[in-house]
Write a structure and sequence with these properties.
five-stranded parallel β-sheet, alpha/beta, 5 strands, 151 residues, 5 helices, Rossmann fold, globular
């Protein structure tokens, strides 16, 4: 029997269609098997991770790529809620945003973001950043299994 690597579930929280498509394209070329789930605002992100409203059958993400500047609830609010929840706080949250503001960087780390990445402006640089995220978070880092009952 051939070994099938674990399927990585990625939640992309992004409201910019161009960035969504670039991220999808970069992950298509991934060596790691993955599913990308996209939500476009902070409230939908919380509904997804809490499996409520339209997302009752959602999978628990293995990693979250979170923009800061979102409609309804901003990324910092989402980050704070996720990292203060004992069931969700183990999920790595990668801030992937256009903001280079020092206050956003400091606030994100104070809210326990796992890392903060500023989106590059050029297409090639953006694709390289996504590949780096994929290489590190999905290729190098050992992620916990989705066993929600584990203490």
């Amino acid at each position: 029997m051939l070994f099938q690597p674990q399927l990585i579930e990625i939640l992309l929280v992004e409201d910019n269609e161009g960035d969504i498509e670039l991220t999808r394209e970069a992950f298509k070329e991934s060596k790691v098997r993955n599913n990308i789930h996209v939500v476009k605002d902070g409230q939908a992100a919380l509904d997804f991770v809490y499996r409520r409203n339209a997302f009752e059958n959602a999978v628990r993400p293995d990693v979250v790529l979170l923009d800061i500047n979102l409609p309804k609830k901003d990324g910092k609010e989402v980050l704070k809620i996720v990292k203060n929840d004992p069931v969700l706080k183990h999920i790595p949250v990668v801030i992937l945003t256009s903001s280079e503001a020092e206050k956003d960087i400091v606030k994100s780390y104070r809210l326990y973001a796992n890392c903060y990445i500023t989106k590059p402006v050029t297409l090639n640089s953006f694709m390289e950043v996504i590949r780096s995220v994929e290489g590190f978070w999905l290729g190098v880092v050992k992620l916990p299994t989705a066993n929600e009952e584990a203490a």
